[in-house]
Every structure is written in structure tokens, then in C-alpha cells.
Amino acid sequence: MTEPTGGRPPFDAVLCDVDNVIRFYDNSGLLALERTAGLAEGTTMKVAFAPDVDLPVLLGQVTPREWVESIAAGLAGLVPDDTAWELGSTLLELPFRADEDVVALLRRARIRVPLVLVTNATLALEDDLAGLGLADLADDVVSSARVGLAKPDPRIFRLAASRAGVRPERCLFVDDTEENVTAAEALGMTAVHFRETADLEKALAPLL
């Protein structure tokens, strides 16, 4: 296969985050419920994504439903118990969609190099990807809940590179969280802070 102009691409594998890169959530229903309950918008997510609440579910130590219980406990005293449970359940069940432009770019890149998804996710990730029609998007999926490691732990980046069959310094890493981008760069990866599809397209240009 002919290499792009300029010779060998600067990477031999693509490691890509899922949430807020490939998958996007619609939280409008949750925000409406918070307003009805008299809570400031974003309160439920602030509780849910505090490290002591979300890390156990991201490491696969608790189930998503147990995560909801922890969220409800964190909201205790702010709203009635049944409302706290409803808020947690609504967060867990937020509707989501895939960005088809991002998916198309990744599918094109995968023709040239291995693609591995590396993501902080719950045990529901595989079912979620299947529901989006993306079960076959990548060569492998490194999910924090399955491997017991979460970004920005450098071990999860090394594991993802190993699954791709390349050295870390030959990987392109794409993530929407700057902390994770910095961690990948520290391992010698080419790292991209994803904010919009154009960021990914530019990074993949040597392949496409």
C-alpha cells in the first residue's frame, strides 16, 4: 500500500477515547429533572463523578445500579430519597448517540493501522457499543471496568499499546480530557486533545 506523501506516518496505531469523542450524551432530561427538584443544574453529575463515587464503577468494582445507589446517597438531604434515586437512574440511562463523522474517520484510519478504544467506562460499555452498531469499530477495546485500570494511570495506556501490537511512542492517542492527553504524552505517544471533529481529522491526515 502506498504511503502518504512524506513517508512513514508518525504512528502505527490509533488509541481513541469513547465518551465525548465517539459517543455523546443528551443530558437535557436530567437537567429538567434537577430544575423540577429545585437543584442547581449539574448537581447530580458533580456528585456522580466525584472520585470516591465514580472510580469504583469505572474499575468494575461495583455494578452500574450500585453506582446509582451511591449517587442517591450523595444527594441525600438535598432532595427526597425517591427523587435522589430518580436522578441517579436518569443519569445512568441518559440517551446517547455516535458522531458519524468521527466514526467514519476512525474506520478509514483502521484500514491502515490498528484501532484500539481505551476508555474509562462501566461494565455496560460492550452492550452500549453494540446498540450503536459499533461492536466492530475497533480491533480491541480496553475498558477500565474490564481491566481494573483507569486513565490517567499510565498502565492502561501501555496495555492499550500492547493490545495494538506497537510501542507507546508509535501510538496516536485521542482524548477529550487534557489530563489524559498529558499522561499519554509522558509515555511518548503522539496525543491529541479532542475538542471537535477537525482535531481528529488533522491528526489522522498522515493516514488519510
Percent of residues in helices comes to 40-55%
Order of helices and strands: EEHHHHHEHEHEHHEHEH
Determine the strand fraction and express it as a percent band.
Answer: 5-15%
Alpha-beta classification: alpha/beta
Radius of gyration: 18 Å
The overall number of domains is 2
**Poorly predicted runs:** 1-5
Q: How many strands appear in the DSSP assignment? A: 7
Annotated CATH architecture of the largest domain: 3-Layer(aba) Sandwich
CATH topology of the largest domain: Rossmann fold
Task: List the total number of helices.
Answer: 11
Question: How confident overall, as mean pLDDT?
Answer: 95
- Physical arrangement of strands within the biggest beta sheet: 5-4-1-6-7
- Oligomeric state of the chains? single chain
Largest sheet: 5 strands, parallel
Q: Note the gap between the termini.
A: 12 Å
Within CATH, the superfamily of the largest domain carries the name HAD superfamily/HAD-like
CATH class term of the largest domain: Alpha Beta
**Apparent shape:** elongated
Organism: Streptomyces griseosporeus
InterPro entries: HAD-like_sf, HAD-SF_hydro_IA, HAD_sf
Keywords: Hydrolase
GO molecular function: hydrolase activity
Write a concise keyword list for the protein shown above.
208 residues; alpha/beta; two-stranded antiparallel sheet; disordered N terminus
